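Chapter summary example.
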Amino acid sequence: MPRAFTRAVSPRLADCQLTHQQRVPIDVAKAAQQHAAYEQALKEANFEILRLPELANDPDAVFVEDTALILGEHAIITRPGAPSRADEVDSTAQGLAGHFQVHRIKSGFVDGGDVLRIGRKLYVGLSTRTDEEGITALRETAAPLGYEVVEARLRDCLHLKTGATFAGCDASGTPVLLYSERSIDPAQFEGVEPFATDDTEPAAANCVLANDRLILPAGNPRTAERLRARGFNAVEVDVSELQKAEAGVTCMSLIDDRP
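The structure predicted for these 259 residues follows.
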């Protein structure tokens, strides 16, 4: 059974790191309910949910995607660019150690939200959270595992996967890159057909492929309908409170999609 590793919402979520949004009040209890609904959507896609240890004093701890990459039987522990997140990586490493061969990035900075895997290629966005040294370190770590690292350029977005994610194959078997034209030039990616979100719905570019389902943030009906027209089983989950912390649906889980 495929698995998704998650972590509870911290009571200090309202103190999260912000780069592109103004700080607004966050209802932590509501955010926790939305996070539970997200986990339920993964369960309904036949994923087993495994909770990493709770980190109540780390505001961004729920966003586990930034702390590791899961590549088959391997897990690469990253080095998030926000200094306040340094403690999270050790907890993630400990939580994954019994399930994967664990490797660590030892220099530079890499946020997992900047890493988009398509086949054996890891596209890595150069962002405010991921730097050139980190990309080089990831390349050196991933190459022996059989993965090629390719640097990607962003426009105005927090992470690469804020603006582009792999949606899987449509009804005709064509692999599709879901992206926002505001954030990403799709010409950087090989072997996929670019599919733009509705221009009023850039947040829809961040999606989670979960078996036969494509989990999208609620509030993007035009994009969801267009995806359904191409044969995708698009499932919408309300993460509006978490989006106040610059979250997308990918950032709240580490996906191990092996059967």
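To summarize the output: Residues 3-256 form a domain with the L-arginine/glycine Amidinotransferase; Chain A fold (CATH 3.75.10.10).
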